[in-house]
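ENTRY TYPE: paired fold submission
RECORD: A
CONTENT: sequence, then structure tokens
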Amino acid sequence: MRTKDFIYYASAAVLLAVTTQVAQADEVATQTPSITEGNQYQPATAAEIFGGEAALPVTPSSTVSAPAASSEVAKASAPAVSTSPASQSSEAATATASTSVANSTVTATSNSVATSVVSSESGTASTSATNSETSNSTVATPAKLTNSTDVPSPTLKVQPKTFIDVSSHNGEISVDDYRALARQGVGGVVVKLTEDTWYNNPKAASQVRNAQIAGLQVSTYHFSRYTTEEEARAEARFFIQAAQNLNLSKSTVMVNDFEDSKMLPNINRNTQAWVNEMRKHGYNNLMFYTSASWLDENNLGYRGPVSTSQFGIENFWVAQYPSSTLTATSAKNMRYNAKTGAWQFSATANLLPSKHVFDHSVDYTGRFTANASAEVDATQGNLSGTISIVNNNPTVGSFDVVISNVKAPNGVETVSVPIWSEINGQDDIIWYTANRQNSGTYTVNVKASAHKNSTGLYNIHLYYVQKDGQLTGVGGTTTQVFIGKTPEQLKPKANFAIENNNAKAGTFDAVITNISAPLGVKEVLVPSWSLENGQDDLIWHKATKQTDGSYRVTIKASEHKGTKGNYRADAYIVDNSNNRHYIAEKVVAVDYARPSGVLTIENNNTAAGTFDAVVRNIVAPTGLKEVLVPSWSLAGGQDDLIWHKATRQADGSYRVTIKATDHKNSTGKYRADAYLVDDFNKRFYLTEKVVEVTQTRPSASLFIENNNADLGTFDAVIRNIVAPNGVKEVLVPSWSLVNGQDDLVWHKASRQSDGSYRVTIKSSEHKNSLGNYRADVYIVDNANQRHYVTETIVDVKHNKPVGTISVVNNNNDTGTFDVLITNLTNPSGISGVVIPVWSEQNGQDDLVWHNATKQDDGSYKVTISASQHKWNSGKYVVHGYIVDASGKNIGFGATSADVVAPKKIGSASRGNYDVLNKIVYLDAGHGGYDPGASYFGISEKSLTLAIQSRVKAKLESEGYQVVTTRTSDTYVDLTDRSRAANASESDIFVSIHINASGSSAAQGIETYYYQPYAEYPSRINATYHANPTRLSMSDTLANAIQSSLINATGAQNQGVKRQTFAVLRETTAPAVLLELGFLSNPQEAARLSTSAYQETLANAIVAGIKRYYSIYN
């Protein structure tokens, strides 16, 4: 946003001295640019960076406060922590900080960590816990580390994200490029839309679209030039129009970029006018970009002119560069200018090497990045980690540590696991680096032989080295280690008993007591099943630990198909190494009565195709909550299965009516089952019946599909038709319920390939009414008898506008037509109507958004002219959008028009930029007594003429007409060159030059197009010199030729630049000036003198020109 948007002007005297060119006094501007901190790196003291505190530390240091040992655990103390990364290897047994074993604490410097407790060997780090959770160990779980030099930000919850800003200087940025940026922590992009009231960024549409696709949050900025309140309001409106053209919502962050020193007088008053105008149009998410020295509250020791209290300091995005080597992580940790909303810390961030260099900023409040949805580092998030101990081998004394759910605010670089035995303090501590697995977990293999063959309790703690270098404590656990023990010696033992055998409820309790488990108890399991049918009802139950240390679970026959008879229950203990051990088994006799009932079929109505299912004589030992009757026809399996809830009758029975219309109107055999749901929500099958169903009158099912709130339409679909006397036609009358049947329409449904009938009901045929509609179905049989079948109510909504768009007054003589919009309605109101129009000749290259005018009769109209669309003939596409009360564009329709455009007249050299005549004006720089640059016996004037000759021949062979300033060694005045070009009917002006510098090392190719400058007004081109279309087309031409030259030659890319050169200012057509290399560089001079290189340059220039024509033709 800085150097690429500042307009630089070199002194004419300096340019003359450097290039030895003879130029008119006004060929270049003579004013030296003013430069703010936004354009240079500023050295800063540590006090400036940290608000008067200590200097920036080389390596962040950490203090981990470990837990006090529980009385139930053998002093689970924390490791002494070294803040040096080198000390965290497996050999780092020494500690650089003091350790207090009794209090289980570790003291280091600068940072502090809050702790919490996690129970068991598979504890997940949390922020708090009760003492009852510390059955196995007490565990340190540090909170987020904070730097003592941080400036607090009340809205910042985790490390802030970064964002970039881009303009046309950055060119095309692909979706993959943006995704690569997102992977580096970039959460948003601020795209330049406009400058002053004449410039639109030609790359903005693709830069915005690709960023949105990649999931970055998109904001926009306007480079301001205003010096009065009226100019400020005009620039605000220009900015808004550009945002609307890109369909950006009003919630988008809109940035006012003010850097031009000419704005300083009355800047607060003028900027307030800009703010008021933006808010007047509904844009309230405003921010301001500028340099720190411009603010009245900064870290420079003096007050700037911009009032931070007037506009809110949190709404400022400040550019200030204390170091040229700052990384994003370092910048985020510094919290420089942290009271502001964002800080730009670099203008040279090489985030995509060999592709783009970006301005890089830290987002303190989330305004620029909170809505990003791009992919992020999987290890970045709130601090968390789960430690599990597996494969504990008591024979060899080894175990594995598995860490999952690994996350930290700045992402995790390394997972470190300090481990030591309780014997002799920490004399056997080893810092292990965990190995990352494909699953995303991390593992460490631990052997007692590496810990002096110690047995007993081992402490396992977890630390992360975050990607910013911070060492952060996460949590910990313990485990028992044995050596030389057999599995039988470590096998748990317990007593197993059956209690509370309840015959009525069909339940009993399995109780496990007197547990002895050397390897600990992770859980107690009790599988149970009835012995009637093998293990077809096997259930594994997890027993619950009781206050007396026993474990208990209740077994329910209702969960085992309600089976009566013998049940078997086994007991298993799972130790802390996840090994399952069989303990004992029991067989239990269960005396249980199943629910029962009798199902009968009544009222089988052949005319209606219905029957009643009645359930009587119900026996429900465990209570009766409801009776369910599933039914389905046997014709298609269970594809029409419906579960019915039966209704209780006065006599205690339950009844439900089954309808063939609910079952696709199938005839033939139906099945109905009866189920009882008891008070414990257990469902029991009771019995079933098969029923023969017939029908004599037509029947069908009516479905409502595709209820489209955007269009105000829905489909009525008639399926499962049964018609004994045939089907002649299906009719669907529909009407809104607003005013009786005043909008009744009888629709004839169309038969579909699957035998159904379908019709689309449109609210536009019903006076665009909203709310409830009624749709009925009638079948007309082959005897012309109409039968009512069914009906339904549909809620019709319009989320989008409805209207009729048509083309009238299509005039082939003038190439004009009118677009007329009638019957336009919109639920959220209409604040305007816009009509985008383009011809089909070259995609949407002539797209124009027109504003329609409201007429006295409520319709809207706009006149379209072929002159607005490059005088193209053929089909024009016309779309209609309303602008609702929130400023959002919503489409309501489209049409097209066949246009015959009259013959195009004029040329770009006469200010008609819609016309391309394939006439190119070539201007060979210098000539006659003006040699231009001269080095090594070579003159610029001879090289420009030679290259022009090659370009001319190649263009003419391609069918272009070429006009030139000179074809021999003659001098032509600068203004006369432009006069000749303006009279040539040419489309473009290309001036060919060779560069020079006071340094023989300078090299490369650069291309210029015009920059208006008030001190150098146009002499002969006042009408067109600053025309926005000319400048935009000049930009396109410059980029096309520069890109072609660099690709063809491999020369150093000095880029596309802007200047107020006379030939660029006074020429009416789009104009560029090429500098094809440095004659002052010996190597480039030698290349420029060769015929082969001149041929390469000429081919590249022609390719760039052809590319330009392909864009606008």
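RECORD: B
CONTENT: sequence, then structure tokens
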Amino acid sequence: MACTVFDMCISLSGEDFHDAGLGSVTASVREGMGSILGAALDEAASIISHTSNATSMNLAFWTSAKPTAGGLPSDDYYSCLVAAEAASSRKQRYPSAHGSGSGSDDLILPENYAGYLKSYSKPDKVEEPPPPAARGSGGSRANTRGIGAPSPLRERAGLERKRKRDQARQYKSKMRSKVRQMLKKQAHRRLGLWRSRVLDGDRVPIYVSLDGIAYPRGRDAYVTQERDQKALTRMSVSEFGPNSCIVSPRALPYCQQYPPLTPVDLRFWHLPPNIVEAYRLSSGITGLYTWQADCLKTLLDCTLFGFEDQPVSPASHRPLDRPFKCGVYCAPTSGGKSLVAELIMLRRLLFRGLRGVYTLPYVSICQEKLQQLRRVWGDSGQSASLAALRIEAFHSNASVDKEGVIGGWTAGVDVALGTLEKVNGMVNRLVSQADSSTSNVGTVIIDELHMVGDEQRGHILELILLKLMLFATGRVTSASSGELYQLQVVCMSATLPSLDPLKSWLLEADVYTTEFRPVPLEYFVKVGPRLHSGDLDRVVRDIPLLQGDPDRITALIWEVAQEACSVGYDAASNATGVIVFCATKAWCEKTAVHVASTWPGVPWDLDDTMLRGRQQALDILRASPAGLCPTLEKSIPKGVAYHHSGLTMEERRVIETAFRNGHIHTLCATSTLAAGVNLPARRVIIRSLQVGISPLDASRLRQMCGRAGRAGFTGSNKGEAILCVKDDREARTAKDLINAQLTGLSSRLTGDLLTRALLEIICLKLVSRVDEIPGRFCSRLLRYHLQPDQESREGLQSEVSTCLEELEKDRFVKVNDGLITSTPLGEAVAFSSLKIEEASVVFRALRHASSRILLSSDLHLLSLVTPVRHDIPVHLEAYLNLYNAMAPDQRAVADRCGISEGFLNSCARRNTLLSRSTPVPVCHRKTPEEARAWQRQLVTHLRFYATLLLHHLLKGVPLPMLASTYKVNCGQIQQLQSTSTAFCGMVVGFCERLRWWALAAALTPLSEQLSTGAPSFVAEMTSKLSHVGLPVSWAIALHSAGLESVTAIAGSDTDTLHRILARAVSHQRGRPTQDFNNYLRETARNIIVGAQEVVNAQVAEILEEADECRASDDEESDGGSSSSSSPSTTSSGSGSRDRQQGLVEELGGDANSLLDGLTPEEINSLAAA
């Protein structure tokens, strides 16, 4: 049945909940709600009971404001929110409706009640009540009290509130003192100090020496610490505080032992010896190229990094106290760009303690970079011999994300790797919350800067750089005292055109460019059976003809394998890798089948190592959630596979690993492989000058050809790129592409994206006045520097003014006397990362659901977090079949969401597929309003189709069955799942900003389920163990076998886990082979280790909380006259902790947020007090 508990929740105030008995309400409806509603109702009840004065009126208002039959008007759907905001402000200004009576003693909750302890309304003075009359001396107290005097109960309540406010002030003062002591003990370096990590459930202190070696606590650690202290004293480096950074690294003991070095030696840059050795062992890097050394000299301020006696770069005449320092360099693929940025970040981290953010475009590159940096730099949980730096990745598939911190970034993380969307959230936290948790962020690396011109995500990258520039320059402008804030931004790319616009845009950035490529790359053009040079000036050779290969594609691949066999490379080397780029996904699969069917074979095909590797890849794919594709089953035994977005993440990971190991020699892929994955190859073949339906451009061509001839791989002494064309006309086009100059950069901050960027800048308080917009906002846009003429710049300023008017019209901002302030709705849109058009759809859906939500299943909740835009093709035949097969409770949800069978039938008569580009029927074009109504109905039906798919996915329906039912491929389902996870977080943030606590609490559990695609009973397990690749089917098998939690898995043994996994796999593929059996055992061992790491992290958090409580107890025992006066303060340590925690929760604060709203200068003044 359809249960509408939210009708009850949002219509009752806090007092009504207490009177009605929330426990009985919870007990009566919990049976039909499922796990989501249980957690949601408990949290909603707690929130509403604590926020009755501030939120009951708003919730009751939304309940009373019933939506009209046609929905909210498109131009005034925020009027209800504005009215509620005005009513809330009136209530806060006049807390009692009875004048200045006793009602004015009520505690006035701040606006950001559920956020942080920032500001409080000054309470009215409460006079001491007269002492009560003695018993029997004059009758009862009720008879002696005058008419209209406050009752004793009300007086005692006022005194109790006053006492709690006094305790809150004292507690806040004590916490500021605690933070002051913490800041004094903060070391601005990562060498020569004690750190801690959790191992096997225990916190293990380690000492990181000045040599960059981590020692466990013991004699060696203490002896090393004493030696390092003497060295730091000689260097005039203090143990803690502002003077604890290492300004002159060349004075370090290990640098004194280095012989005279040149800049191409890694030791010249003062790296610890063990990190230099780690670079050699893991990446084969023994030194720098000349261009890398020159680039480091250009980008580094030598006088600040210990090179006082070295000649500085020409750019060093600029002032060294620039708050925003940016370096941009461009080098070809495989030129070693990443190493330059890594050295800059590592030096600032080791010697100054400045944490770093590494921005990467795709999730796959984040995961690859995470493993590479952990191997080289060390990690507190990975290696005890390196510098114990903690490196984490933050993206849609990461399991370490936590709420309430900087995009999941805790203070213990030294380097954060993130995609554009995650880094944008980190920057928002950095800008809006400049406190002790973000003041030591000093380095930001931007990889693939050319993506600023990308149509889909380029605006995010430009907005990140815009906010960093305004933030850094704004902090130095408002600084009155304290240390100067300096932010170093490093941008790199392989396909950047002229760097002059970027130099002026990024505040006179230091730029460097080179054409050096360690492995030469040669271009060829294939015309018919002949291979021509890239300039078409000569015929290189005729391509041999193989049986069944008229296009001679297989022959071009077979040549590489034959050459490698003649040289004598190992069978498992990657010297034979060939990547064939195709225009479409279907063409990729056809090419893979063609090459496999016409492959003549080489001696390596019979090698035992090669055969076992290919068979293991087949076994793993067969046991994956999507099963083994028939095409891959035919092609992989021949060493051929395909790679495109239609594959699941598990399939892509297996194929990429097999290609790197040399078990697969040919990979047929789309152009997305060139930018998303770092797969080196000996030869690259481009089968068409088209990418989908678009022509191939010079930038994408260089990205594709850059996969050939990568440095550091076996057989990579040269690279070859072959462009296949049909005739002489296409050959000339290919020649022009090879020699073409890169097109200029373009800005994507136009139209609605520019409006949203302005809104975000205003909400972050980077611009607060109208007259600041031309000089502070417009002049920092990339378009301003790409359009040097005055007329274009004036047009840009006019466009920005129009954007501000639209924001004011839609009530996102308010403009009074030239002062710009954001409204709660504007902040909700800005900080939730929703687009403006998406926010309007989400707002309507949430407001409509708040009056009556159906909780018989999670279908209605899923409809609220399904992305407004998605790439799932909607087949009307499948849609109608699903609609007709719905259960009654699901049909009620569909009706509540506005799904109409008549609309589907009318569309099915004209189309077989539905999309956002479906034209409006003629019968609905009579008026613009009617056409817009039909388009809104189309969006609703497209969105609900994806909701049904997600609903079945979370019910545990296998991916192949889902793909067959909805007529999509498994990769598209996983892409929808990933997008929905991010969108769910946006909607939850949107609700929290609007103080819709009940809806936020109900939607929050869906985020974990969507991130794993697992049923609720294994969602937590799958989410926490996603870093070890635990599939949903295996998690269900472990749960069925009795291992129902991560703790249970951590306490299990390898044999037990291996037995469970083998039994689960046997249902899919029969009896496993010996090689696959070994793989399962190794996987079981990795799952147990991953579970132990998760448990260790949880224990570390508990130990940190215990330390905080112990410190609070110590401070409490030292005294406080007011605290000791109350009976509650004389209780035990446990009672003291409970009292303090209850006090903080009641006043809406958090112990870690006491510095919110303070500038770094104010924090420095606190530390120096």
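NOTES ON RECORD B: The chain has six domains: 184-250, 258-305+323-474+485-513, 521-739, 751-832, 834-1013, 1014-1111. The two ends are 63 Å apart (CA to CA).
STATUS: closed
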